[in-house]
Amino acid sequence: MNNAENFMQNKPLSEQTAAHPAQPLQQLLTRPDIWQLASRQRQPRTGISTGYRGLDALLASHGWPRGASTELLVDKAGIGEVSLILPALAEMTRQNRLVILLNPPHIPYAPALAQAGVQLEKLLLLHPRGQRDQLWAAEQALQSGACGALVSWQGRETLADKDLRRLQLAAREGSGLHFHFRPGSSASTPSPAALRLQLHSDGEQLALQLLKQLNGKSGQRLHLARNPDLTRRDQPLH
Q1: Using one digit for the tens of pLDDT, what is the confidence trace for 21-61?
Q2: Secondary structure tally for the chain: helices H, strands E
Q3: How much is the pTM?
Q4: 73 burial class (0-12, 13-18, 19+ CB within 10 angstroms)?
Q5: 81-104 pLDDT, tens per residue?
Q6: Do the Cβ atoms of 82 and 90 come closer than 8 Å?
Q7: 176 burial class (0-12, 13-18, 19+ CB within 10 angstroms)?
Q8: Could you give the CA distance from residue 18 to residue 113 in angstroms, rounded to a whole number?
Q9: Crossing angle of helices 161-174/130-144, nearest 10°?
């Protein structure tokens, strides 16, 4: 009879202990059915390289975190923010993984994407109507496991904390990359995202501030070169 059955029958603890003698701690720790938080923390944390050595050095996973949401907070679209994630998107398509752009505010400039190494046949653009459909599409894509990276743009409506958590959990389940562009004003509110970066335009460069990262330091600032094609040639979608 197992421990669960003993418990259901309300047997005294002394009887259960007699039936199952205490095991040494070290022996217990070697059992595969016992989950240890420390063991998970010792596992190597590897991400997908951002393509920028300086940024990789600041990130705990040495790249974009897998199976997690990354929030990119931008005050104004079209400052070259997409160039920040292009190396990772290109890598996903090279691995024959699907990349989905959900509700982008601009029509991506295809020649610049191809020049950056993105295989366009692995790129899918989705424009669901309304926040409810957008959330459903994002959740389904992330959970599927077939999506290497999902890039989503928050619309005019603010997502509730529970919805952000749904996206984070869906990304974890599918083990893919999730890049979520949100307004810069979102920096003042908490988020369950594993990584949060604030982006600003600074001349010919993109200025980054690391607001939050799981298992890593935050507060660092960095300047990166932008892709001029993606800054000047994207056309408004609406």
Answers
A1: 555 655 544 444 444 444 444 444 579 999 999 999 999 99
A2: 10, 10
A3: 0.77
A4: buried
A5: 999 999 999 999 999 999 999 999
A6: no
A7: buried
A8: 67
A9: 20
